[in-house]
Amino acid sequence: MNGNYVALAVTLVVWIGLFVFLWRLDRKVKELEKHDK
Fold it and tell me: What is the domain extent for residue 15?
């Protein structure tokens, strides 16, 4: 049972990290687009 919780926690951390990474990347791209125009 403990292993399931570990796997679930790792999966959650990976998804949250992915969302944060994509969100920050999106903000950086928008900033770059502002500088271009």
Answer: 1-37
**Measured distance CA(9)–CA(2) in Å, rounded:** 11
Helix, strand, or coil (residue 25): helix
Closest CA to 17 of 28, 9, 5: 9
Domain count, the chain: 1
Find the radius of gyration of the CA atoms of the chain. 16
21-26, Cβ contacts within 8 angstroms, sequence gap of 24 or more: none
The predicted pLDDT at position 23 comes to: 98
pLDDT number for residue 1: 64
